[in-house]
Every structure is written in C-alpha cells, then in structure tokens.
Write a structure and sequence with these properties.
mainly beta, 2 domains, 5-stranded antiparallel sheet, 4-stranded mixed sheet, 1 helix, 8% helix, PLAT/LH2_dom_sf, LOXH1 protein, Inner_ear_hair_cell_LOXHD, PLAT/LH2_dom
Amino acid sequence: NAGTEADVFISVYGERGDTGSRQLLRSQKPKKFLKGQTDIFAVEAVHLGHLYKIVIGHNGLGSGNGWFLDKVLIKDPITDLDYTFLCHRWLDQGQDDGNIARELTMTDVSTFPGRQELELKREETWAAEKWKFREGNTLQFYNRLTCGFICLSPDSRVDALGDKKNKYGKVFFGWMY
C-alpha cells in the first residue's frame, strides 16, 4: 500500500522563481504512482536557475491514497544538472506525521554519497520498530547457541539463562547469532 491513486501535485522552486502548483498527469508508465515504481513526468516551465526546494503532495482522494515517497529527481534539460530531493516518508493522513504534502530541500548527493539516504532508512526502520519498546512490553530473543530465550522485562530485568521454552505467551522476537 505504498502507492497512491490520489492526484499528485508538485511546485518547484529555483533562484528565479517557481512553477506554481502543477498536477503530475502523464507518466511514461501506463499506471502512475505504484509501489516500487519510478515514474517520469515532463513539467514545462520557464528556466528557474538553480533549484533549491520542491513542495510535493496529493489531494487525499481515492481509496488507498496514502503514498510512500522515496525521492524526487529533477533533470534540468538546459544545464544538464540533476537535482535530488530525498523524502523517504509517508504522505498519508494515517501514517507517519499525518501530512499529505512535504517540502523537500535539494540534497547534494555528491557531498555525502548514500549517507543521507542511509540515515533516512535508519529513521524509517526505528519508526517502524519502536512500538516494540513501549513500556510494559517484554522482548524475547532466541539464542541459537543455547537454544533458549533471552528475555528483556518491562522492569529492566534481563533473563539470560537461556530457558528452552517461551514462558511469556505474547512477546516480540528477535534472533541472536
């Protein structure tokens, strides 16, 4: 459910002005904004000079309108420059922070190749997994060496004796190698 059927809009900002809000209508793909898909659009505008930010979002209409946007790459046909705007977040009223539009600033990928994308993926992983560490939850890790469980209790106790059975019923598992 990372794609969207909603109408998607973009505004591109550069040193000489902006495009205003433009709906992204015709992708080079038969169906646009599908999960895992890269869509390509042509947006006509006056030359904006060096780009520094975009605002991208959707109207929230349609079934399954939430959208996970990885990044936007803009190729300037006049200067032959590529501008990368990393997002790696949800545009969804029911996910993340509930926003369906994002303001993204230009990322100089050449300054730290992969580093910012790696940090965004780390943040996404923590956002998806932090619920396991809420107060009151017991975590169990299966230790393949002892063939038993190591338990982290809500009261900060650690049971590392390697019991051979799951004595807690409903818990969250991880693997230790």
